[in-house]
Amino acid sequence: AEHPYNHLTDTLDNGRIKFFNPQKLNDPRYDKLPLSIRVLLEAAIRKCDGLYTKKEDIQSILDWQEQQNKAEVPFSPARVLLQDFTGIPAMVDLAAMRDAVAKHGVDPSLVNPRCPTDLIVDHSLQIDYTLKNQEMELIRNKERLQFFKWCSKAFKNVNVVPPDFGAVHQVNLEYLSRVVQLNEGFIYPDSVVGTDSHTTMVNGLGILGWGVGGIESEAVMLGQPVSLTLPQVVGCKLVGSINPLSTSIDIVLGITKHLRQAGIAGKFVEFFGPGVSQLSAADRTTIANMCPEYNATVSFFPVDQVTLKHFKTISDQEKLELLESYMKAIKLFQSYEDPSEDPHYSEVIEINLSSMVSYVSGPKRPQDRVAVSSMKEDFQSCLDEKVGFKGFHISKEKQETRVPFLHCGQEYKLAHGSVVIAAVISCTNNCNPSVMLTAGLLAKKAVEAGLVVKPYIRTSLAPGSGMVTHYLNTSGVLPYFSQLGFEVIGYGCATCVGNTAPLPEAVVDAIKQGELVACGVLSGNRHFEGRLCECVRANYLASPPLVVAYAIAGTVGIDFEKEPLGVTAVGKEVYLHDIWPSREEIQQIEEDTVISSVFKDLGERMEKGNTFWNNIECPDSVLFPWDQKSTYIRKDSWFPSIENAHALLFLGDKVTTDHISPAGSIARVSAAAKYLLSKRLTPREFNSYGARRGNDAVMTRGTFASIKLQNRFIGKPGPKTLHIPSGQTLDVFEAAERYQREGINLIILAGKDYGSGNSRDWVAKGPYLLGVRAVIAESFEKLHKNQLVGMGIMPLEFLPGQNADSLELSGKERFTITLPDSLSPREQLTVKTSQGKSFVVTALFDTELDVNFFRHGGLLRYVARTLL
Ligand SMILES: *[C@@H]1O[C@H](CO)[C@@H](O)[C@H](O)[C@H]1NC(C)=O
Ligand SMILES: *[C@@H]1O[C@H](CO)[C@@H](O)[C@H](O)[C@H]1NC(C)=O
Ligand SMILES: *[C@@H]1O[C@H](CO)[C@@H](O)[C@H](O)[C@H]1NC(C)=O
């Protein structure tokens, strides 16, 4: 059938490349839409099929001004990103589908994902290596890797990134993200949904994307759009110019703080305004990665000149020109020149970048922040004040103390505020390369200006990783660090300041003699208290370049604005602003050395693959040769029998849907509360389960979280159960999670009228996500029974007159339920226990359709499979 929006087709590159041009709608509303919404619109137009994406949806998106926060719209991202945890079930499903269609005489090679899928294998390997049973894990990994390798060869549209190429988000940023996609002569914006929590980082590169759950990502892979409420878009307008002393970290943290205070949960944030062009691609991805901090869905930086420059290192000129003309043709390119072209946002937050000043923390606690500009005054007041969090209480006359001492044959003097330790550490909060580069460039310029660091100061450089040393070296700044005395002492936080060499004895003596408040300055973010030498009473955390600056100054009692950093051998005064590198300079070096070498390195390794991966043998077959012995990769059987299952719960009569999925408030001590606290919510913000129906992490934890739940494993009512293998009493969720980790199937034992009460949308999904595969009860509420079937959970009924007590079940035995090859409605099945008992139950599939749903693992999968 003809595409309903064929009339919007436009071409580029002398007609060789086609695209849908929403501007041809001639709708004045298009030019006012936030750019992120334009991305949604383009995708809806391109994917419009009258089934999943309808013409009404395009109208709703165009009418965003009116429809925001109201209309549900579909979004078909350009690609799906899976990490191997979620990748396995999705890929096993696909492979099993090939078997199934082959059985029906259809060519199995027709079964492929409909949405391009990238599968990054590193994730679980990292975790597995930390397990005790390493050898076993390696074998298991091999099975998995074989399977993944087979997937990469057998399926179209599947790209497998082998292990050891980096963490998911890094590979996504540096290898997979391409701003536009070119597919069969069609060009369209890149966009992504991923199962990795760092997925939002790519929004820093103008690529719309966010994280979704496993089931959702599988649906997208099978060609279904994500459904979302048309979001509100907060325009974050950046104005003013960046304070010269502020590093990228200062700016990222400053912007994050603003956004957190603004309360933009669940919304899109989109950056605009003249200040945006001052932020490098690395700054932007870091800000975009902070989304969870302020709870926005995405922080979107539309494509601009900075984005293009970032991709210059990996794209040839021709591709970049195509990209630019395409993005301009559909108005997805930002120039910031003409404010009248600014989109209309739901609301606008203005941030003046000049207000993001640089801070240091100290002198005693990391939470005491001092603006660098007021450091001198602040240190003075610390000397004056009585002893406390900040004060040292040094009398006025003693504040003037100067203690001379000899070091290597030369006389120096120490005073209050003298720096004796300076450590440049690239710890977690300094992983943005520009910050270490700034420090290196400052060192270079200081050396070139003729400045030195006094030799008695203990200086050190801990780059955090070989990669940091590598780019410090490539950019040519490493030798200058070393000339100032900052030698590489080792890697990682393990070698943080605690390991620096002791201070020279003469220095220690001088400090003691004058009872001086000597200072340490370091750029780490941990190990604050008591890690530096005992005789160093004031410790400051500062950005790496400021560590270099204070080391050169030799004191923290300096006002960089008014006082020179140092005096050269020929008597020339040099101020900090004389040698502080400009952002342009830093960004240039970052693009030239860091980014290009990272891209190049990753690209080359991808080409070559690694020996381990290359050596993995894998079949060339169209169908996967399942090894039924494998504990890791096993075809999801069409009739998933239940083997050696434990009972998650042992329940009595009249368990209602309110016990199964309570709608009330979230108790302060519950698995859901623990989760929400980990997301930095306060108990007052918890709200009710009912209000949080959209969040599967909360709802799974809320399943069986009723305080009225009567579990026979536990003497009193409450949302607890027994983890039978360990004998521990745990929250139901925690027990279920543990069983899942142990690969143990779960069932539920219950009495009469299981599942009575109001219908709730999580009553079947919740137990399913907890790993429950069957419920054995004396009787079921019909509606609930249907929901269980729809979710792929077996409703099994004891024979009339029988129940757990009459069968003398303790609930602690293990249960095996074998299914016949073909199942008929209301078929009787035998349950065997590990105690050697067996009893008969009726499988409550009332119709062939019920059997069908169940055979496919539930309604969702049934639909997905029919689609294919
Ligand atoms: C930003 O703040 C600086 C310093 O406070 C001020 O001089 C400047 O005018 C402000 N810029 C804008 C656009 O508000
Ligand atoms: C985070 O987002 C969720 C979903 O939009 C919202 O319910 C919650 O209140 C937000 N929390 C914070 C701290 O903003
Ligand atoms: C820095 O690079 C040079 C030249 O490529 C090399 O010889 C040297 O070993 C490198 N130093 C470090 C610390 O990596």
Describe this structure in words.
The chain has 868 residues and is α/β, with parallel strands linked by helices. Among the domains are: 359-593, Aconitase, domain 3 (2-Layer Sandwich); 646-867, Alpha-Beta Barrel (Aconitase, domain 4). The strands form eleven sheets. The chain has a seven-stranded mixed beta barrel with strand order 26-29-30-31-34-33-32. The longest helix is centred in the last third of the chain and has 26 residues, at 583-608. The protein binds 2-acetamido-2-deoxy-beta-D-glucopyranose (NAG) (3 copies). One 2-acetamido-2-deoxy-beta-D-glucopyranose (NAG) binds at residues 265-266, 295, 681, 685. Residues 64-554 form the Aconitase/3-isopropylmalate dehydratase large subunit alpha/beta/alpha domain.
- Which small-molecule ligands are present, each listed once? 2-acetamido-2-deoxy-beta-D-glucopyranose
User: What name does CATH use for the topology of the domain at 359-593?
Assistant: Aconitase, domain 3
Strand content: 15-25%
**Approximate shape:** globular
- End-to-end Cα distance, whole Å, is 19 Å
Number of H/I helices: 31
Strand order of the largest sheet: 26-29-30-31-34-33-32
User: Structural class of the secondary elements?
Assistant: alpha/beta
Please identify which CATH superfamily of the domain at 359-593 we are dealing with.
Answer: Aconitase, domain 3
Largest sheet: 7 strands, mixed, barrel
